[in-house]
Amino acid sequence: MQDVTTNELTELRQSFDSCDKDADGWINPREFSALLQSLDQDLTEDECLLAFEMTDGDGDGLISFEEFMGWWSGE
Question: pTM of this prediction?
Answer without folding.
Answer: 0.88
